[in-house]
Amino acid sequence: MNWTDDPPPWLPPLPPPNRGRLLVNTGLILVIGSFIFIFYMSFVGGTHTLYTLIPLAVGLICLIVGMVRRNEGR
Description:
Helices cover 59% and strands 0% of the residues. The chain has helices spanning 21-44, 53-72. By secondary structure, it is mostly helical. It has two helices and no strands. Keywords: Membrane, Transmembrane, Transmembrane helix.
């Protein structure tokens, strides 16, 4: 390892490159899965409950928090 591999001490620490990616992926899976479930149940003629909205709301919250985390470092 060379001394030029280390960042200079006057630079602020760099954030990790993939910050928020896990939350965005989890949110996308929850939102897309919820919509597929809602459309499927509507096509089949099944009934929905308000519990169907819980994964949708959690997915949207994960997406929002993940996007905010990704843009914090810029």
